[in-house]
Amino acid sequence: MPIPFRKKILKYRKWQDAQASLLGKCLLTSAVLDGDFDRLRDIQFNEYGKPSIPGEFFFNISHSRNVVLIAYGNVQLGIDIEKKEDIQIEDFKTQMTQKEWDSVHSVPHKIEAFYEYWTQKESAIKYVGKGLSIPLKSFEIIKGTHTIIENDLLFFKKIFIDEDYVCNMASKENFNDTQVKIQQIEYSL
């Protein structure tokens, strides 16, 4: 593995995050780089840190708890996965629009609804590639199917990984299985 990637992995404070980052690079290498770790050198990063391999394909990596996954294909995309946990969703009110907040609170399974919105918002931000420089409250998830962010109309696709996780993917394209593939690793903590 190239030295800059090793250094980045070693900067994580928690060993679990370092492990997930390493597994993400392994997934990228095995899924789309023909097992050649040296090809990680071809990765370029935008000013916000979003990785890409220009002219070849688009990819995005996400992890939560003991699942790491990669989505890749011929369309630009963002993906996010979160393990459903009991949280105080009130702590996240400032990150959601009033309509999103009202929608979460109008259903019996509030935690599930929260994670659905959250992974859609995160996947949209990852699609754009500017990280949290885009405030989560600055765009709204519309009917759970699409959003407009940075003047781009994005569509969402829910990806079933496991009943304990919520995963969503965002792109300008309506997805089909020939455009985007997903691979995952589950590991023990």
Low-confidence stretches: none
The DSSP helix count reads 4
E-strand count = 9
Spatial order of the strands forming the largest sheet: 5-8-7-6
CA-atom Rg in angstroms:
17 Å
What string gives the helices and strands in order?
HHEEEEEHHEEEE
- State the separation between the terminal residues, measured CA to CA: 23 Å
Entry summary:
Helices cover 28% and strands 26% of the residues.
Keywords:
alpha+beta; three-stranded antiparallel beta sheet; 4 helices; globular
Structure description:
This protein is of the alpha+beta class. It contains four helices and nine strands; from the N terminus they run ααβββββααββββ. Helices cover 28% and strands 26% of the residues. The mean pLDDT is 91.
